[in-house]
Amino acid sequence: MDSELIYGRVIACVLVVMSTWAIWKRIRSSTLLSAAGGLHLNILLFFGLGMLSYSWRAATLEREFAFVTKAWSEAGLALALGYGVVLLLERRTQKNINPVLHIKNIEPTAQTIAVLIGLWLLSVVGYLMANFEFANSGVGTIFPVLKLFGYPALVVAVWMVRFRQPYTFVILSFIFAVSGYLAVASPWRSELILLGSSVGMGLLLKSRRFLWTAPVFFVFTLLFLLPFANEKKLHYEKVSADPVAAFVKTIDMPVDKRAKFVAEFWAKRINGGRELAFVVNGLKSGLIVLRYGASYRDALQQLVPRALWPGKPSFNQEMNYYLARRIGLVDKGNRYTSWGISYFAETVWNFGILGLIWGVPIIFLAANWLDKWAERNLRRPIMVVLVKAALFFVFMDLVGMVNVATYVLWVCLVGYGVDRILKTKGIPVSRAQPVRTHVPATYKLST
């Protein structure tokens, strides 16, 4: 097992290096905030850093650690090979970049701010309505998607802050305060992580002077807010009754204990490699069988409105609840935790380990196509940025095809609909000319 452990760590380190290089190239070309950019970040967080955290985690059961390490040494290699193909392909596609549509060419004009606040308010409505049962199926799934636009709005609000324009600080403060309150009040730990990611992403895109602040803010979120979010999840009623006391309690946690908690949380929850290993083990032990692409059929059937198909099965329930219990990711006695495996683990479930070699490039090609669709079909640059940013967050936490297909469809429909409404309300922005900006419209891109 020692050789497999070392081999698995090497694969994880290779993925960290490859994805960091790809992310850096996209930061320099201002294309990180996109569906494809979210996929690169997914590889870094969930597979590179996720498996490194897991390999040094002391609290793992020996039996689980043994089969996860062995399965990762096989599946991780196929993932790295597929990702290598992606980087080779992107050397050519990254050259075809339209600098007019970058976030850096968006000014905080009255129209831009009105669109930003309007879509952010829709996200708040989506957040409130997503807590109801009808939001889990049919047309009601639009509300979780509307909620998703809150993160891009916060990214753009952070980026648009100008020292000589005080109203930009007011807008950011208001959006951050409301979004922060909703994240703290939410029973889901992921809300705080995404809040920190949004602020960090805005700082990352602002300028290279703020480059170091993005990871610092994200680490602060993990070390100080994540323990509070976990305490709230475990004791929701008690923490809701006195959140200040609960937060002070988590602040008093020793640094070593806090770091250990974050490492263990990352190793278990932000770890697509572990999910890959459980799927591989499930296939080998007969707990599940190859689906030969049935997930893609399910994704298409999921898009059929329930009004047209009253007896439509709940495909989300299979992917987000039963599968995790069947392969051992969640204890069968746990009736409350939902867990949707990553797209890459689902690819193994469909086509086996070798499916990753061609499955990884295909999903990146699909993500790049979605980015280009937004650039071709959305008329206002602010809508291009917000839609691509929403897709960024979808693909950063890429789960099964049923979820992805639903979210992508709604994001594109909402973005296209809002863009067309704006077109009828005012003069459309010319796509041939850059938006007025304080920096040159054409600048050198990395090659």
Residue share in helices? over 70%
Can you tell me the overall shape?
Answer: globular
Total E-strand runs: 0
Characterize the largest beta sheet: strand count, sense, and whether it forms a barrel: none
Radius of gyration: 22 Å
- Distance from N terminus to C terminus (CA atoms, Å) equals 41 Å
Structural classification: mainly alpha
For the residues shown, what is the average pLDDT?
Answer: 82
Number of helices: 19
Number of domains: 1
Order of helices and strands: HHHHHHHHHHHHHHHHHHH
* Low-confidence spans: 427-447
Percent of residues in β-strands: under 5%
3D structure, described in words:
The chain is an all-alpha fold. It has one domain (2-425). It has 19 helices and no strands. Residues 427-447 have low confidence and may be disordered.
In short:
The chain is mainly α and 447 residues long. The protein has helices at residues 2-28, 35-55, 62-93, 110-129, 142-148, 150-159, 166-185, 190-206, 213-234, 236-241, 243-251, 255-269, 272-285, 294-302, 315-327, 343-351, 355-377, 381-396, 401-425.
Task: Summarize the topology.
Blueprint: H1 2-28, H2 35-55, H3 62-93, H4 110-129, H5 142-148, H6 150-159, H7 166-185, H8 190-206, H9 213-234, H10 236-241, H11 243-251, H12 255-269, H13 272-285, H14 294-302, H15 315-327, H16 343-351, H17 355-377, H18 381-396, H19 401-425
